[in-house]
Structure formats: structure tokens, C-alpha cells
Amino acid sequence: MQTNLAEWARNSHDGQAIDEILRKCVHCGFCQATCPSYQILGNELDSPRGRIYLIKEMVEGKTPTAVSQQHLDLCLTCRNCETTCPSGVQYGKLLDIGRQVMADKVKRGFTERLQRKILARGLNSPVFGISVRLGRIVRSFIPKTLANKLPVARPAGVLPSGNHVRKVLVPVGCVQPELMPSIDAATIRVLNAAGISAYDLPARACCGAVNFHLDQTRPSLQQMRHNIDTWVPLLESGKIEAIVMNASGCGAFVKEYPFHLREDPVYTEKAKYLVEYVKDVAELLAPHSQELVQKFKKKLPDSVAFHPPCTLQHWQGLRPLTEKLLTELGFKLTAFGESHLCCGAAGTYSVLHPEVAMPLRDRKLEAIQAGGPVNAIITSNMGCMTHLQSGTNTPVRHWIEVVDEVLSA
Ligand code: SF4
Ligand code: SF4
Question: How many structural domains does the chain have?
């Protein structure tokens, strides 16, 4: 794609980065076929190619409007288009920079700014846990989109006292420990069964994704630097061998720290070092499948459907590895159509854009149902889990919780 950059874009790092990505796009439109927002809304401007044009027009000098911004907002950042694109267009990075540049040029309305600020502050707040407990009590009086985000908590249970030579950090994130404490606890127990202990670092710390996706770039960058300053010394001193992620959304975001910190050379280098040690829990457990199977005390559920989150399959490329591990552990995975498509959760997207998120959820659940009867749906990201659970009575769980359950007496 040929570009004719406006002067401000020619003279800015962001403009140059956008230009480099745009030049790879050949307008073929293959990406349209796998774009969930395009499939629901049917408007070219809500497709990857349409959004690419809007960003191109902006760097070529056209003043963006609130309508252009809405089209970028409606992107689920699933990156299905990146997996599909034959030309290797880095759409995700293009959108991240494009949204930031547009946020400087288009002022959002008061209500929208307030909504984004409340969400960002609320989810990062130290009193988030209290709000969750209160929300569960008054569930029937709060808006359905919020009530859907409050799953019935499964208790954490007892943590192992094992002290193995191998140690990893399982970061305590922002919302997951409050909404579903069983996931971190199950991760720690399963790792323990594989001969790996979790290093004790109890302070909650968001990876920065929540703030980033709600236009709060500065606090997001602060959170990234804070995590780097906490985690890198532990890795360098040999106290831990890896940072283990059990939420694919957080893992995918942390793996992009070097990109987000690209204007800060010192932290870019530290981030590159860190990323080498960031592992999804499936990556860490892959070599231990048989050892774990030997310790199973119960049977796995008969038939389950594995929903691969976009942040696992399209961002991190870890779908085959996770499915291979699950199969080696003995899961009988039911195949279903459109497994590449987003379920509509996408972080806070499902709260901000239920008109797209809900039809995508229902479409995903219908596809799973059409694949045959399942006893449970398993996944690798709590956001997908709560979103899907709000539309079905079939239990939706993190796969690590199911493995933990069959390891327990
Ligand atoms: S598939 Fe790739 S090259 Fe083709 S229009 Fe989409 S982004 Fe551009
Ligand atoms: S990231 Fe997902 S929703 Fe956004 S344009 Fe690409 S395929 Fe469509």
C-alpha cells in the first residue's frame, strides 16, 4: 500500500511505525473473512481493512472524527486478521499505535471518558475485592452486563507446603484473584505436583492491559515498569526460573512489553530480557504430562470442548501446544466449528460493546453445542470463561482447575 504521509507523521516515531506496517498491506481483503466485528456488524469500516484505511487517512492528514474512533473501538483486538493475513501485516501493533494517535486528536465525550476512567480505576483499585463481594450480594440490582462479570467464586482451597528446588513466579494479577481465586491456587498445586514451587510474592499487580485498553497509557506504562523492576531481579538472581501466566490475556500483553516501552531504551532492553522467561502455564507443564497423569486420583470429565482464547492462539501462537498437552493429559476434546473466532469477551470490550460481544458469545456457544454434547467447556483465560459462562449452564472452567481437581483425593 502506497502512503503519502502528512508532515507530522513523517516527523514522528508513531507516524513512521504506522507507515512501515501499512506498506505491507496489499488490500487483498482475506482478513475480512475471519474478522468477528465485521461478521456481526457487516460494515467494511468495522473490518481490519476498513480500519487500516482509517488509520492511513489519519497519517495522510485527514482529521479523524468520533465516528472513525468508534470504528477502531469496535475492534476486539483478537488478531484473527493477523493469523489470516498472507502478507504479514502487524495489524495489532498498527491498531495500538493508531488508537493512541487518534486519542490525541479526538476528544471523547464526557460520559465515555468517565466510563473508561471508572472502569480502569475500579479494576485496578485495592478495594476491588470488596466491590466484588458487594456486587455478588446485590447481583439482582446491578446492570446485567456487570452481573455477568461476577462468576460464582470457587474457593481457593489449601496451598501446598512443598519447597522444590525449581521455583517460578505466578503473578497475583488484578481481577482474577478476586473473581476466581481457585485458578491461581489450582496452578500452584498442579505445578507443585510437577515438582515446581511457586515463589511467594503476594502483592497484587496488574500487567497494565486494563489501563492500556482504556486509553490510560501513562498508568499502564507505570505498571509495566513496576513489574519489570519486581520480576527481573528475581530472574537475574536465580530465585525463580520463569514468570508463569495462567491468563492468556495477561501473558500475551506482558510478551509485548518491549513494544509498549519502545520509547524508553533502558526498559526496552529489560523488557526483552523478561519476555524470554514469560511462559504460559501450558508451556511449563508440557514436559510433565505423563508425570501428572500418574498422579491423577479421579477420572477427567468424559467430553469437553476447549475454547482457545484469541490471546492464546492468535497473539501467542500457543494453541497447538495447549491442545497437545490437554490430549496427553487424557482430555477427550470435542471438535467444533469456528474455533478460530473470538467469543466476544476481549477484556472490558464486553462491558463497553455488548451489542457485538453478546452475539459473538451466543455464536460461540452454538458452535460448541453443534460439535456434540459436552460435560464442560475449558479455556485458558478468565475473561473468556466468565463471558461464556454467562450464556450457558454447562460449566466453563480454566483447564488447570480441572487438572487440579483430578489430582486431589
Ligand atoms: S489480509 Fe493482510 S494484506 Fe490483505 S487486506 Fe488484510 S491486512 Fe491487508
Ligand atoms: S483484531 Fe479481530 S476484530 Fe479487530 S480487525 Fe482484526 S480480526 Fe477484526
Answer: 3
